[in-house]
Amino acid sequence: MVEAICAYAMIDKPNGFLKIALEALSDLLGSIRSMSLLSNSSVHPGVTQLLRCICRNINNWKFEENNKPDMVSIKE
Question: CA dist 15 to 7, 30, 35, Å?
């Protein structure tokens, strides 16, 4: 499931899904105390690919004063 979410987030289909996926994955990973979830073979590839996609495109993003990404402007 996480791999599919990451795949749709990378192509932002439906439009705006990247923002939703990033927020959901952030909440999910932040709420789990054990990092063993990230080593799971159904989670790790998708999250890794999504992070690579973010790294390639982060120079085009705008940031708020608190250094958090301006999620509204990410896909403008």
Answer: 13, 25, 30
Residue 28 lies in a domain: yes
Percentage helix, strand, coil for the chain under 3-state DSSP, each rounded to 5: 60, 5, 40
Each residue's pLDDT tens digit in the chain (76 positions)?
788 888 888 888 888 888 888 888 888 877 776 667 777 777 788 888 888 877 777 777 677 777 666 666 665 4
In angstroms, what CA-CA distances link 10 with 50, 62, 69? Answer: 6, 18, 16
- Residue 18 falls within a domain, yes or no? yes
Task: Confirm whether 71 is domain-assigned.
Answer: no
- Report phi then psi at 25, rounded to 5: -65, -40
